[in-house]
Design goal:
The chain is built from 13 helices and eight strands. By secondary structure, it is α/β, with parallel strands linked by helices. An eight-stranded parallel β-sheet has the order 1-2-3-4-5-6-7-8, with helices on both faces. Helix 7 links the parallel strand 6 and strand 7. The radius of gyration is 18 Å and the shape is globular.
Length: 311
Amino acid sequence: MTDAASLSARLDGLLFFPVTPFGPDGAVDLEVFRAHVRRGIEAGAGAVFACCGTGEFHALTPEEYRACVAAAVEESAGRVPVVAGAGYGTALALQFAHLAEEAGADGLLAMPPYLVVADQAGLLRHYAALAEGTSLDVIVYQRDNAVLTPPTVAELARIPRIIGLKDGVGDLDLMQRIISAVRSTVPDRDFRYFNGLPTAELTGLAYRGIGVTLYSSAVFCFAPEIALAFHRALTGGDDTTVNALLDGFYRPLVELRHQGRGYAVSLVKAGVRLRGLDVGEVRPPLSEPAPAHLKELAELIDRGLALLGEN
């Protein structure tokens, strides 16, 4: 386990959110999960975020969750940090946090509380309790029913164990005000910000404009070559390559993702299968993509790989 400063400093590069493989019997396939994590690290992932949204945290039992986090930690072997998802209400989030601690994780991604729409005071209490109840560092993920105001994030930034905010809302005005509020309230704090939108590459240029350069890449799960090429271009200011990949691959991918509910997960998992690793299907209540959409995804992957040769 690491302290807040060291984990914060280690979070760099592309953030890898592996899928959770299920075998033909529906059980978690740990060997395939290990292979998936290992391939991602060897391809150049900057960190592994295990059992989060793409990893179907919502569908995992506590026992499956602990086993997957432990497997990710073992495969990482300290090469990159491992951050585990935690969610539901405060009591359950703390239980998952303790399981992640036992498994050797470096930190937590605190996902929105289950079902309820809380006010800012309640959200502040929830995340503060999670941070105070674990020795792990916490990144708060704002989206859906957990959208934070700038003063709330500034208060969260005062808590040493809370090291950053992942944004899944996409409101750049709000994010700019959050960054300003934190900077004004705790000017010496190394508080990290992450673009956590589905297919975050599509908004990479916009987030770069307000100083947010870290992002999670679902594409890295199934096409690390494309994801890494885009990341190099984005961080290096090569807007020609960025725009070529946006126009030829990422925008069509997002339009395909919009064709079905749950495609932010199931389409990614299908992409991993298309690239040769049988990670199985998604668990209910998610559904598999339609056959026509799988065909379109395969064609998009080929197009994206072809674009790398042209750039």
